[in-house]
Inverse folding.
């Protein structure tokens, strides 16, 4: 998938998950697109640093701590975007991170032709 397709897919995922979970708020499609772009930049620049710092605990938990890192990235996105993109609690951002990881795994599966 190309970069802009991932951005659009994440924006659609944000809007659909905001309708699914009560503790997750997305103000509009434009906020979802902005949050998707911000998440892309944070994943590019901040996530590798966080992953490196948390490598020992990630190894101890057999990689499950990466879901917590994804939730932290969503909370950072919420911090930078502002009031139009918000989580009620860290548990909600953890659930959204799990759902986003599953959906993106399905979307990024190579297709057999």
């Amino acid at each position: 998938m190309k970069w802009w397709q991932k951005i659009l897919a994440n924006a659609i995922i944000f809007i659909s998950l905001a309708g699914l979970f009560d503790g997750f708020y997305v103000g509009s499609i434009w906020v979802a697109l902005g949050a998707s772009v911000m998440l892309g930049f944070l994943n590019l620049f901040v996530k590798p640093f966080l992953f490196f710092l948390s490598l020992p605990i990630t190894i101890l938990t057999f990689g499950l701590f990466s879901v917590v890192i994804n939730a932290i990235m969503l909370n950072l996105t919420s911090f930078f975007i502002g009031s139009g993109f918000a989580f009620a609690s860290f548990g909600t951002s953890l659930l959204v991170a799990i759902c986003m990881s599953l959906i993106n795994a399905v979307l990024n599966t190579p297709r057999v032709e």
User: Anything to note?
Assistant: The beta strands are 24-26, 85-87. The chain has a mean pLDDT of 94. The longest strand covers residues 24-26.
